[in-house]
Amino acid sequence: MAAHRGAPPRDWDQVSQSVADVYFPHELTPIGPGSRPRLTLQTLDLGPVLLGYVGWGADIAIDCDYPGAYEVNIPLTGHFVSQTRRGSMTSVSGQAAVFRADSACRITHWDATCTVLGVKFDRTWLDLEAERVLGSDPVRVAGVLPDQLDLDRGGGEDWRRLVNSLASHLRRPSLFAGSPVVSEQLAGAVAAGFLLTSCPDLGTGSPARPRTVSRVVDAVRDDPARPWTVADMAVLGGTTVRRLQEGFQEWIGCSPMEHLTTVRLQRAKADLESRTSHSVSDVAANWGFSSPSRFAAAFRRRYGLSPSEFRRYHRHGGSH
């Protein structure tokens, strides 16, 4: 999907169709006489997860049934007011409104200054992820999802940072188009963070036992380049994501994904120390990093040098 920002005023039907083509069919009603749209629309497609900036540039109301997908809308500027099971709800920056799949919803006022970062989850896929992440029936998960998430503290803040880091790539919507493995990993991370934040009372229990943690540790070390998600690790260990995370913290002192990154960095470091002609980008890709820039940042945090600096230092007789 091509990115659009600050498009000139167009017919409301055309603007509505542009958004419907990316997100959901809906009924759009401009508020106030003579209002004209100024559409903001940028998207990043990760397969079962779609991220996007959406702004109408005018006051509107919108009705939607969210067929086949969950939607989470995070206001970046302005506000919108939606009708929930408990009545009217206003969402502003630092909050996220959660809309359930196949459920009628009305946003009674999306103000002209409001731009949201939307996260769309395919329903069937997210239901399967809920079983893997929380070990819970999807019907139960849908029943306990909140209407609104607090993104200013705790797990909500962590999830917002993850989504914002991915949203930084919205100016390059085709960035991961040729990397389905990377897209799968990123989609899994977004889903796991959302589910753990939204359903804090599901998937709880005793932390994973040392034997379970060891099984996952061994599998990661045997194949660190595999497109692991934390849900994949939980399935391998026969537990839920939350219990696996608690077990890793108790027995290893880090999260499963932090352990994966450590192993990948160790393998990448060994490659850079060798006399191979692989570029830094090749090394990053070989060990499952989503981009050379993310690899370089993680490498510098751990070893104090960029991958290129480390390679030059080592080849000139240094050690690190």
TrEMBL record:
InterPro entries, per the entry: AraC-bd_2, AraC_XylS_family_regulators, Homeodomain-like_sf, HTH_AraC, HTH_AraC-typ_CS, Tscrpt_reg_AraC-type_HTH
Pfam families in UniProt: AraC_binding_2, HTH_18
Residues making up the signal peptide according to the UniProt record: none
Protein name as catalogued: AraC-like DNA-binding protein
Keywords noted in UniProt: DNA-binding, Transcription, Transcription regulation
Residue span(s) of domain HTH araC/xylS-type: 214-313
Molecular-function GO terms, alphabetical: DNA-binding transcription factor activity; sequence-specific DNA binding
Top-level taxon in the UniProt lineage: Bacteria
